[in-house]
Design a protein that fits this description.
Elements (H helix, E strand, L loop, with lengths): L6 H26 L4 H12 L2 H17 L5 H34 L7 H21 L11 H33 L5 H33 L68 E5 L5 E3 L1 H6 L4 E8 L10 E10 H8 L7 E6 L4 E5 H6 L4 E6 L2 E2 L9 E3 L12 E7 L6 H4 L11 E7 L5 E2 L5 E10 L5 E8 L5 E2 L1 E2 L9 E8 L4 E10 L21 E6 L1
Helix pairs in contact: 1-4, 1-6, 1-7, 2-4, 2-5, 3-4, 5-6, 6-7
The structure holds the ligand Nc1nc2c(c(=O)[nH]1)N[C@H]1C(S)=C(S)[C@@H](COP(=O)(O)O)O[C@H]1N2 and molybdenum atom.
Length: about 550
């Protein structure tokens, strides 16, 4: 009468072995640039889920991070996704262990190895196929034959994991049956000792894998691409140049955000747990479809054969909440799409460009939009440096007046088509045009920087930003408590599409006050004050802050 190990034991063993497997995959990612399986599966699921569920998930993460008051929202959100991805794989491993042990309680197999091997294959084969279909960030996949090595590596990992699971089951069953003559207490001891051994071995593999991975692959596979310019200098443009509006006498109120967002502070939003790594040597921009001159362009040809166009751009995510962090301004460099169109010559029936990216993201732009605005450009540099991997290296598009969801990073192909199509987020229920909403934010109520005027009147500098796509800002107004809306001073913006810095020196009165702010667009259109959440067309409502002064 052998006593087979329980389902719970299977869950525990499954969990322990899966932690070790995750650590081994982590080491593989760092060491040889193999895919990191949990992230691939997570991204695959995220692409499959319906829009409302994804939006709910993102909103939940953003709410939690905001509630915890963590700085750097978009980085924290990526970290949260990564933790969820690893957690998801762990849960799957626990379930697999439980299921295997449950099956083995009711069934005997002819071979001692086949149950474990089968488990490894049942989990490993789909995971391998998914990873190969989705992964563009693994360095290994970019070398000839690398995809096969990746596939083999993933499969090998799961087979060894499955065999270990089956072996553990057999050991536990054996210790139970050999002890059948002796007391139940001895059985329990044997099992416990064995489980501790499995736990210890898993922990050793985990510590070695994760530890070695962390030491060896500092920066990680996704950060491996170059961010220096041709001269080897990694100096941003802003380090040695002044902003185009530097002569404006209006100084931002102390505590106002930096007018130019530094590259490290710029938000990042995309559908990838790790951004896709595109290698310049293998990359060409494919221009295909309804064209007289279809062609392929290298990054060097885009840089060298066209006069570079520089624009100061404020980019915002449609998910940005009122006064949120998902907005930033930097200097973009690239080529006007009008110039490219003149060369590839769209056929008369072509109406739109379908832009596809290395991560499977896509969006559609009307040729009319491009012909009406020479500022629509393919950009390869931010602040004078080649785009960072996470910001779209080697190429992204800029379309003034639209939220980021309309503007693919990591572009690989532009296909000229007849008729409009829905892009990635439009298919998931977001606004088809995604025009940037007017928004105004209070960055600072600088009570510590009180100005004392000649007549001993005290004023508190208040300031922040206002933005309305390419439509400009003609007026910003501040209200204190239930008082009058009073005009603020406006700093000249860096370009027609960047945010405007505003400032209002408020006659100080001690006590608790609520400060509110709103703007008017260039043509006088007032900012929408009705409160609406981001989905589907971008948040509206005015920003207020309460301060005890
Ligand atoms: N290929 C690709 N491009 C993309 C996305 C993406 O997921 N994949 N996300 C878009 C969204 S929603 C935004 S807000 C901007 C953000 O650009 P950033 O991360 O460089 O700030 O990229 C856009 N371009
Ligand atoms: Mo976005």
């Amino acid at each position: 009468m052998t006593q087979k190990p329980t389902i719970l034991t299977g869950a525990v063993v499954g969990g322990l072995l899966t932690i070790a497997l995750i650590a081994v995959f982590f080491l593989g990612a760092r060491l040889i640039g193999a895919p990191f399986v949990p992230f691939d599966i997570f991204d695959w699921i995220a692409r499959l889920l319906p829009g409302p569920i994804i939006t709910f998930g993102i909103d939940l993460i953003v709410s939690i991070i905001s509630a915890l008051n963590i700085d750097g929202l978009s980085n924290a959100a990526k970290t949260a996704e990564q933790i969820m991805a690893v957690g998801g794989m762990l849960v799957t491993g626990i379930a697999a262990g439980a299921i295997l042990f449950a099956v083995l309680r009711n069934r005997d197999f002819a071979s001692r190895y086949s149950p474990g091997l089968l488990t490894g294959l049942i989990v490993g084969v789909p995971v391998m196929l998914i990873s190969n279909s989705i992964n563009r960030s693994a360095a290994l996949n970019a070398i000839p034959g690398g995809v096969l090595i990746s596939a083999g590596w993933i499969l090998l990992g799961f087979i060894v994991w499955g065999l270990a699971l089956g072996w553990a089951h057999n050991q536990l069953a054996k210790s139970a049956s050999s002890a059948s003559a002796s007391t139940a207490a001895v059985q329990v001891m044997d099992r416990r000792r064995f489980l501790i051994t499995v736990g210890g071995a898993s922990a050793a593999v985990t510590v070695m894998g994760a530890g070695l991975g962390a030491i060896l692959g500092q920066g990680g596979p996704a950060e491996a691409a170059i961010t220096t310019d041709e001269t080897g200098a990694a100096q941003p443009w802003s380090a040695s140049n002044s902003l185009p509006n530097a002569d404006d006498p209006l100084q931002p109120a102390p505590g106002t955000r930096s007018e130019l967002t530094s590259l490290v502070d710029h938000y990042r939003i995309d559908i990838n747990t790790l951004p896709p790594v595109v290698r310049e040597e293998e990359w060409k921009l494919k221009l295909t479809g309804l064209l007289d001159n279809p062609t392929e362009l290298t990054l060097a040809s885009l840089r060298d054969n066209y006069a570079p166009m520089h624009q100061f751009v404020t980019l915002a995510c449609i998910s940005n909440r009122i006064a949120g962090e998902l907005i930033g301004t930097t200097r973009w460099t690239g080529v006007s799409l009008q110039k490219i169109l003149a060369e590839v010559k769209p056929k008369s029936n072509a109406t739109h460009l379908k832009i596809t990216a290395a991560d499977g993201f896509d969006e559609v732009v009307a040729i009319e939009t491009i012909m009406n605005d020479e500022r629509v450009m393919l950009a390869y540099a931010w602040d004078g440096l080649p785009l960072e991997v996470k910001h779209g290296f080697p190429l992204r598009i800029y379309i003034p007046n639209h939220y980021g969801m309309k503007q693919p990073k990591w572009i690989t192909e532009i296909e000229f088509i007849e008729g409009w199509q829905e892009g990635y987020w439009v298919r998931r229920g977001w606004d088809r045009d995604a025009l940037m909403r007017a928004t105004t934010v209070i960055d600072t109520v600088a009570v510590d920087m009180m100005i004392v005027e000649a007549d001993n009147k005290m004023k508190v500098p208040i300031g922040g930003i206002a933005h309305a796509g390419n439509r400009g800002i003609s007026r910003v107004e501040v209200r204190v408590d239930d008082g009058e809306w009073t005009a603020a001073q406006l700093r000249k913006p860096m370009s027609e599409t960047t945010w405007v810095i505003w400032r209002y020196d408020w006659p100080f009165e001690a006590g608790e006050h609520t400060f509110s702010v709103r703007c008017q667009e260039g043509d006088g259109t007032p900012q929408i004050e009705t409160v609406a959440s981001s989905r589907p067309s971008g948040a509206t409502g005015i920003h207020s802050v309460k301060e005890m002064l």
